[in-house]
Amino acid sequence: MSWLTPDVLVPIVLAILKALVILLCAVLGGAILTVVERRLLGLWQDRYGPNRVGPFGSMQLIADMLKIFFKEDWVPHFADRKLFSLAPVIAFSSLLLSFMIIPVTPNWGVADMNIGILFFFAMAGVNVYAVLFAGYASANKYALLGAMRASAQTLSYEVFMGLSVMGCVALAGSFEMRDIVNAQEGFWFVIPQFFGFCTFLVAGVAVTHRHPFDQPEAEQELADGYHIEYSSMKFGLFFIGEYVGVVLISALIATLFFGGWHGPWLPGIVWFLLKTGLFVMLFVLLRASIPRPRYDRVMQFGWKFCLPLTLINLLVTGALILLNAPASS
Amino acid sequence: MTTDTALSNTSRAAGEHDPVVDELRSRFGAEAFTLQPTLTGMPVVWVAREQLLEVLQFLRSLARPYVMLYDLHGIDERLRVHREEQPPADFTVFYQLMSFDRNSDLMLKVALHEADLRLPTITGIFPNANWYEREVFDMFGIDFAGHPHLTRVLMPPTWNGHPLRKDYPARATEFDPYTLTMEGQDKEQEALRFDPESWGMQRHSEETDFMFLNLGPNHPSAHGVFRVVLQLDGEEVVDCVPDIGYHHRGAEKMAERQSWHSYIPYTDRIDYTGGVMNNFPYVMAVEKLAGITVTPRAQMIRVMMAEMFRINSHLLFLGTYLQDLGAMTPVFYTFSDRQKAYNVIEAVTGFRMHPAWFRIGGVAHDLPQGWDRLVREFIDWMNPRLDEYERAMMDNSLVRERTVDVAAFSTQNAFDWGVTGPNLRATGYQYDLRKARPYSGYEQFDFDVPVGTNGDAFDRGMMRLEEMRQSVRIIKQCLENMPGGDYKADHPLTTPPPREKMLKHIETLITHFLQVSWGPVLKPNESFQMIEATKGLNSYYLTSDGNTMSYRTRIRTPSYPHLQHIPSVMNGGFVPDLIAHLGSIDFVMADVDR
């Protein structure tokens, strides 16, 4: 064990600590968002929202957590127990794991993987299984319909979600997130990659099943869809998982298109949090302001509009890069 | 005393000179029909059972045809004392037909005898007879030969007895205590299981196995306890079967044991979003029986409050309709508007949802001091809000995408299924009872009747928005032209009599006492009043047997046929289209099940 010198140990411990802090922040961010969303919705809907527990409702989160912990953890007798319990775990962990690739500041971040953004796509792909398992294992017709919608929607939207960021990847010349942020020092990628940004935002909303792409849950139609049979902490995991997804997508948008930690005057971390927070609010505003399109229209929009748009965007980006590239022999 | 004065009003055989009676007599012979003089304002014609189908066919094919089966129900005649000028009968089934070209109604009655309670079904002529005949079967045990699915519609399938029969007890105390065993519970649950074969539905087609989905009775978009069973191919609704009765409270039966006066609060709870709008047809029908003419002030107060409730109900509609389309926010806005309306309603009536504020002969009290300021504030608030809703929501492309051409139906289809009110007008047919047959002084008001073009879910939404504007106009005219005078008619049957008089006048005090303890006694006759309620045509058909209570009260509500209509427009749509349609119908289950 002679290699266990302080020189080696300290960076490892530091890295673990940083990872833990980011993990905690992500989970807490998701949890706090459940309250923030309700307050923001209240603001936009001419009402108060939860403001009873603690000053300005700040303790609402604790009350909610206590309540959900003490709920009976009921598994319907007709459900497939194993899959039923597995689904919320996948839902919660897959998107949470993706936080790994996000560089928060120049020196903070869990892992700088060379596959970078591809890791997120992989995890988003795994996330579909959560919905699928939940819908199938619940043995409930509404859940089944929800799962059907969810898998079809997520699969179609992931197709162009991947393509929509390839412009950024091409511009930065790397899949690694840190490289992509560093490449945006001069100008943010939202300018050359505006269409990429638009389609990624749409796909991001769809992948996290947020309104108006909450087809799998569609309260008015499917009465909460795939998680209709879930209660207690199992439901809680789906619930927090969704908000973790919102934070993640917002952080990814900030990183990929809005220069991550880059910004004048303020420290990098503040810029990163500000940008992320802005997009989180956009998610909430979307929910407050628009109705839900019909499910088949959502699919049409994905395949017939977004996919061609991302393809053209990618082709044009590629062509421009080639044109500007120094002529090689 | 009270009876003497009640008897003084003249029995007017209204509608006796309706040309349709001559048309019928020239076709079927003068002997074929008995004409019953009533206060219903339409000819009431007794037809032999054997001739019923022929007569209905004839009326339907007349030059100006009777296109809509407006109502169909029964009366248990066995305990009725006063049956002058009526053929002998143990049970009566009545068919009320509506002609829009003539702007008049016609009631056919068929006499049945206890030993032989059978009638031919008329579903082949009027498709909406389906549920009505099921209800008559349910309530009276009358059999309709040839009916496609003659089962109970309001009571549970396991029920014993026929509730609207006179020998069926009305009070819970007349029954044994209710018990439910485990076996009983299993039996009830089993009885609710949907059996597609009994509805002529297939479980499989050549390519697919269908999924049968119970939407309701507890579902966020079912607007109450409404169940609709969907036959799904993927998300496509191949067929659907609406199931009602979960909100049945026996309002019609209760009318038979409440005094004419004390039944008013029950009417509030028929269309529970309509408030005093429900009192309106009831008290007007009672006033016809009593021969009371209401003062102009009372009339206008009634119109004003009814229109307040129309706005209130339409606001609820708009919020929930948009919420069903997935827009989360509008419902909060419409509810703050409803609160503004309630501020006025509360100040005037002292109550919010169910004021039970109309009285036989007027309204409960005069308008309070300062009512005009409250109403003006409300009007000033409402108009800009309505513009905002139109801009923010009805012009929204997603709302249009979800509703335009969804669940569209034609005017003819609406007639066939008894669809009335804004849903009928959305198909482009202008028929508003407030214009066509003005009541309570509606002829004095200047307002427009909005009509749609496509009869789709979008038009049905726009109808309500536009109607709210018109209601605001009417309320404004009430505000500017409110006549002075009494808020109650000076008539011996006004219930309760004006308090100012009662405190000084021993005769009125006695009347007051009798009317409040026993209830007013109304002369035997039949009367009828139809109004343009919040959701369509609502009417009360009252039968008095010269007693303090009604002998039979038939409440025809608009939501009932609107729900029966769903399968005829829905088949082939997607689940979200069904939700959009449910949202656009504007029904409440209390209005369906009564």
UniProtKB/TrEMBL annotation, chain A:
Annotated membrane topology: Multi-pass membrane protein
Signal peptide: none
Pfam families, A to Z: NADHdh
Compartment annotation: Cell membrane; Membrane
Membrane-crossing residue ranges in chain numbering: 12-36, 83-103, 115-134, 155-175, 187-207, 235-257, 269-289, 301-323
EC number: 7.1.1.-
Keywords: Cell membrane, Membrane, NAD, Quinone, Translocase, Transmembrane, Transmembrane helix, Ubiquinone
GO molecular function: NADH dehydrogenase activity; oxidoreductase activity, acting on NAD(P)H, quinone or similar compound as acceptor; quinone binding
GO biological process: aerobic respiration
Catalytic activity line of the entry: a quinone + NADH + 5 H(+)(in) = a quinol + NAD(+) + 4 H(+)(out)
Broad class of where this protein is predominantly found: membrane
Gene Ontology CC, one term: plasma membrane
Enzyme class: translocase
NCBIfam families: PRK06076.1-1, PRK06076.1-2
Subunit note: NDH-1 is composed of 14 different subunits. Subunits NuoA, H, J, K, L, M, N constitute the membrane sector of the complex.
Protein function: NDH-1 shuttles electrons from NADH, via FMN and iron-sulfur (Fe-S) centers, to quinones in the respiratory chain. The immediate electron acceptor for the enzyme in this species is believed to be ubiquinone. Couples the redox reaction to proton translocation (for every two electrons transferred, four hydrogen ions are translocated across the cytoplasmic membrane), and thus conserves the redox energy in a proton gradient. This subunit may bind ubiquinone.
Membership in a protein family: Belongs to the complex I subunit 1 family.
The protein, known as: NADH-quinone oxidoreductase subunit H
Species of the source: Kushneria sinocarnis
Gene of this entry: nuoH
TrEMBL record, chain B:
Primary subcellular site in the record, as a coarse category: membrane
Domain NADH-quinone oxidoreductase subunit D, first and last residues per copy: 324-594
MF GO annotations: NAD binding; NADH dehydrogenase (quinone) (non-electrogenic) activity; NADH dehydrogenase (ubiquinone) activity; quinone binding
Keywords assigned by UniProt, alphabetized: Cell membrane, Membrane, Multifunctional enzyme, NAD, Quinone, Translocase, Transport, Ubiquinone
Enzyme Commission code: 7.1.1.-
Membrane topology classification: Peripheral membrane protein
Region annotation NADH dehydrogenase I subunit D: where it falls in the sequence: 209-594
Family label: In the N-terminal section; belongs to the complex I 30 kDa subunit family.
Record function comment: NDH-1 shuttles electrons from NADH, via FMN and iron-sulfur (Fe-S) centers, to quinones in the respiratory chain. The immediate electron acceptor for the enzyme in this species is believed to be ubiquinone. Couples the redox reaction to proton translocation (for every two electrons transferred, four hydrogen ions are translocated across the cytoplasmic membrane), and thus conserves the redox energy in a proton gradient.
HAMAP family: NDH1_NuoCD_1, NDH1_NuoD
Protein name, UniProt field: NADH-quinone oxidoreductase subunit C/D
Organism of this sequence: Kushneria sinocarnis
Gene this chain is encoded by: nuoC
